[in-house]
Specification:
Layout lengths: L1 E6 L11 E6 L21 H14 L10 E7 L1
Parallel strand pairs: 2-3
Antiparallel strand pairs: 1-3
């Protein structure tokens, strides 16, 4: 599941697209139980970081020039 959220109010006019991409792969979705002491999902893995970067690089050109709103894209599998 991937969803996107943006904020229309801008305090300053940035010269770049403020885009945040967060991708998480939950262990329960893959049928696994985390093997750490607390049985919780802790930090990001290298695979999750690289997948988030690939999503960022592929959707960044789709935004129009002049679009400067804070945008967050979250993906969970």
């Amino acid at each position: 599941m991937i969803y996107m959220k943006y904020k229309l109010q801008q305090l300053i006019q940035p010269s770049f697209l403020p885009l945040t991409v967060d991708y998480r792969e939950k262990a329960a979705a893959a049928g696994r139980i985390p093997t750490n002491y607390l049985r919780k999902e802790l930090g990001l893995t290298d695979h999750e970081i690289l997948t988030g970067r690939m999503i960022d690089r592929s959707i960044r050109p789709l935004f129009l020039n002049g679009y400067v709103y804070d945008t967050q894209v979250k993906g969970v599998s």
